[in-house]
Specification:
The chain is of the alpha+beta class. It contains three helices and five strands; from the N terminus they run αβββαββα. The protein is globular and about 40 Å long.
Length: 108
């Protein structure tokens, strides 16, 4: 299995704790499904790179956001993996704090 496909499967398996229906999308986002990982909470674009350093492609980020349906509550995410299998998630800061606040409030 190709590295990018392995990364997508890794992400889908991690998300199954939140959404049991999480899975890589058909044609990796190239079909009618949005993003690379189907789930009900996040709009995930996954990028695997065969380099040590990873940069964020702003055009990819903006396309991921633009693909979200109007009034969607899904949060856009850019998931990145480098050649050493170091994995990162990029999220807008306001979305990060919204998630953090909500998780904190549930603990009270």
């Amino acid at each position: 299995m190709k590295k990018w496909k392995q990364f997508e499967h890794y992400l889908a398996e991690k998300l199954k704790k939140l959404d049991s229906n999480a899975r890589p999308t058909k044609a990796s986002g190239g079909s009618t499904e949005l993003g690379d990982i189907y789930n009900k909470y996040l709009m995930i674009e996954a990028k695997q790179r065969n380099t040590k350093n990873i940069t964020i492609n702003i055009a990819t980020w903006e396309k991921n956001k633009a693909d979200l349906p109007i009034n969607s509550r899904r949060i856009p995410i850019l998931a990145l993996e480098n050649k050493d299998k170091k994995r990162f998630v990029v999220i807008e800061v306001d979305d990060f704090f919204d998630i953090l606040y909500e998780a904190y409030m549930e603990k009270l």
